[in-house]
Amino acid sequence: MKIGFIGTGQMGKPMALNLLKAKHELNVFARHPEKISDLKTAGASFRPSPAEAARASELLVLCLPTDAEVDEVVGGNEGLLAGASPGTVVLDATTGTPAAAQRVARNLKAKGIEYLDAPISGGVKGAVEGKLTFMAGGEDRAIDQAVPAMEAMGTTIFRVGPVGTGRMVKALNQIITGMNVLILCESVVLAQKAGVTPERVFEILSKCSANSYHLQTKLPQFIIPGKFDGGFRIDLMIKDLEIALQTAKELKTPMLFTGMATQVYRAASAGGYGSKDISVMANFLGSFVGVDFWAKNRENF
Q1: Strand partners, 121
Q2: Which of 69, 133, 264, 295 has a beta carbon 3.0–4.6 Å from 64's, enabling a disulfide?
Q3: Which DSSP state fits 163?
Q4: How far is 254 from 67, CA to CA, in rounded Å?
Q5: Parallel/antiparallel/unpaired status of strands 2-6 and 25-29
Q6: SS3 label, residue 58
Q7: Beta bridge partner(s), residue 159
């Protein structure tokens, strides 16, 4: 397929590389192409604007930080609306609000362009390995057109429902992830305070009912080695939880625990931890009782 790609950051760049590995023709727009020269080496063509990327493509993949960037890329000066032909499909992997997805879909539909909200899960590791999960909201025929691209970047595709439902399910994932990690980090702090090491916690709880995806990833990859760079940043978690809270507000649904979790992450971000993986909450929570999982790597903070 002829695919346009916009949003070549920590997640987007490996996704784009996997599209090239699958022999798709890739047209990339990037504000700083010098930072992704390896994509050009791998065979991507760089385009000077979203409109030009759209003109050269039958499918456009967006992987952007927030709704604001999606609005700019779609409808801004030389946005993809200025270049996309009727029948083009936009596969938007951005984690944003369901309401914004529905608004963008209406604007694109008026020009004969199909839109899918298809946020992803799997982290940077999943993006690199091509093992992402897509939660796609939109019409089946548009999803069918996008399946070859999603299969190049991931292993699991869920057809959730109309536009906006993909982002709704992603919000649920982030709510559960955010609170799971807080509980894990709080528990590890208590264990360390009682003289039980993170290594021992991992070994034992891996065989107990407390075992989880986050115990299996955050403990061995971040907390035990005491290195919190990379991964999923606290500031991004705050953004995602705020999406969930905004959606809940629109639906007049109380989210008591999500609200509390968001405030805890905000406190950690205000304390200087915002750019670190969410598992650094073990250090933030530990700081209240003299527990420091970063002691041997303090110079990296």
Answers
A1: 133
A2: 69
A3: T
A4: 23
A5: parallel
A6: coil
A7: 136
* List of domains in the chain: 2-161 (3.40.50.720), 168-300 (1.10.1040.10)
**Nearest alpha-carbon partner for 285 in 203, 182, 204, 205:** 182
Distance CA 196, CA 204 (A): 11
Helix residue ranges, H only, the chain: 12-21, 37-41, 50-55, 67-75, 98-109, 123-129, 140-153, 165-193, 198-205, 213-218, 234-250, 256-268, 281-286
Catalytic positions, written as ranges:
170
144, two tokens: 């069918």
DSSP string covering 110-160: TTT-EEEE--EESHHHHHHHT-EEEEEES-HHHHHHHHHHHHHHEEEEEEE
For residue 38, give the amino acid letter: D
Tokens of 90: 């936009």
Distance of CA 69 to the CA centre of its chain: 14
* pLDDT tens-digit map of 221-260: 999 999 999 889 999 999 999 999 999 999 999 999 999 9
Q: Count other C-beta atoms under 10 Å from residue 35's C-beta.
A: 12
Question: pLDDT category, 301, cuts 50, 70, 90?
Answer: very low
Q: For residue 298, what pLDDT band results from cuts at 50, 70 and 90?
A: very low
Instruction: Give me the torsion for CA of 186, 190, 196, 200, rounded to 10°.
Output: -20
Mean pLDDT across the chain: 95
